[in-house]
Amino acid sequence: MSGKGQMRLGAFFNPTGHHVASWRHPRAQADAGINFQHYLEITRTAERGKFDMVFLADNLGVRHAHMEALSRSAQYIANFEPLTLLSALATHTTHIGLVATASTSYNEPFHVARKFASLDHLSGGRAGWNLVTSGQENEARNFSREKHYEHGERYDRAREFARVVIGLWDTWDDDAFVRDKATGQFFHPDRLHNLNHRGEHFSVLGALNIPRCPQGYPVIVQAGGSDDMIGVAAEFAEVIFCAPLTLEAAQSFYANLKGRLAAHGRAPEEMKIMPGLSCVIGRTDAEAEETYEQLNSLIHPIVAREILSMVLGNVDLTPYPFDGPLPENLPRSNASLSIFQQVTEMARREKLSIRQLATRVAGARAKAVIRGSPQSIADYMAEWFRKDGCDGFNIMPPFLPSGLDDFVELVIPELQRRGLFRTEYEGKTLRENLGLKRPASRYAQRASNDVPPTRAASGG
């Protein structure tokens, strides 16, 4: 653990919990997706546990699936728009970071720059943007497109999108607004900078009509593991949410991604890699195993197969025997290639039937699941952290609110006892708590150094 300090923790809020049958669990909030008091309770719980951040994923529409499966699922069917929700939560919290997904596929850079800058101001410097590309074909049809962007194209678009957003966040110098009533000077004209971006995908003049963020920029988060994603992440991302299923895979991903940072003028500590981890917690290992089996018993077989289909990129599995093996030559889709590879390799390695694989995957949708006592879970987390598999974890409670309560009441004290996690927040902003520097504006860098902008300031 030398040189790494303490681990970072995010709380990933899938409304009712990450297990696909979470909404059916007696300790889950079935209407969580549209229940503000539920979100307020779990966010305050995460803040009480000293988590770095809460994280909300998002879909731009109800996913397409067989109706018999879809109608038995609560996963992103009816839920709040995440930035609206986080803006409300900002007024009820003090320290915890507030991270939301906004797709580069079906947004404009100006909208994303302005909304996240607004959240950063509203929260006093606690905003984070999860930079993603949309992966579901049905989302395209909600935005006047018949076909989704191809995998490579959507990452080219994402790179340019990110450069434009960062450029817009540099519109105003930190000291641009004087608001001097006596002289009548509201801002210094020479401290306003239009972006004047013209690129392959976007043409954006600027200026952004909100002052520079308290954090300089909201923290840039990215999720995924494909080669295209890693290329974008190495240039822009400061926090990575990923889904390795073994320590060896985590170590390989960690070394690969951190090894690419130098090419963009970045140091390894400028990125925090946080694999997803769903913890089924009991006061003993046996109690945790019992809870896990209870959860899995709530998965309807139709739902399990549908979730597996979605994880594999919406491959139609209905022609194949449910108790037979996964077919060898499944078609590749436009979705996450890294998850497709991990899941198919697991099926081959462990000789799982479609039913067994579906039950395994459906619980946390191909993310790592561990069940055990607080001590067992802390042992697992400590090994990954100390052996350079991660800088922390994105905790995915299997059901909410109680799954998060269990983690905060049972696992957090065990991590603190071992010196692996904070007992108090280090700062007031998300960057301070993550140990990330506040980026200087490109214009301040040019004025002081007379050199080209750094990675963080690379723009249009």
Question: What is this structure, in a nutshell?
Answer:
The chain has 460 residues and is an alpha/beta fold. 39% of the residues lie in helices and 13% in strands.
Describe this structure in words.
By secondary structure, the protein is an alpha/beta fold. The protein contains 16 helices and 13 strands. The chain has an 8-stranded parallel β-barrel, surrounded by 7 helices. The longest helix has 19 residues, at 151-169. The relative contact order is 0.17.
Please work out how many helical segments DSSP would assign: 16
Average pLDDT metric: 87
**Rounded radius of gyration (Å):** 22 Å
Helix content: 25-40%
For the biggest β-sheet, the strand order reads: 1-2-3-4-9-10-11-13
Main structural class: alpha/beta
Distance from first to last alpha carbon: 39 Å
Task: Report the β-strand fraction as a percent range.
Answer: 5-15%
- Overall spatial form: globular
Q: What does the main sheet amount to? A: 8 strands, parallel, barrel
Name the features:
disordered C terminus; 8-stranded parallel β-barrel; 460 residues; two-stranded antiparallel sheet; 13 strands; alpha/beta; 13% strand; globular
Give the SSE layout:
Blueprint: E1 8-12, H1 36-48, E2 53-56, H2 67-70, H3 82-90, E3 97-103, H4 109-123, E4 127-132, H5 137-140, H6 151-169, E5 177-180, E6 185-187, E7 197-198, E8 203-204, E9 219-223, H7 227-236, E10 239-242, H8 247-259, E11 272-281, H9 285-297, H10 301-311, H11 337-350, H12 354-364, E12 368-372, H13 374-386, E13 392-395, H14 402-417, H15 430-434, H16 442-449
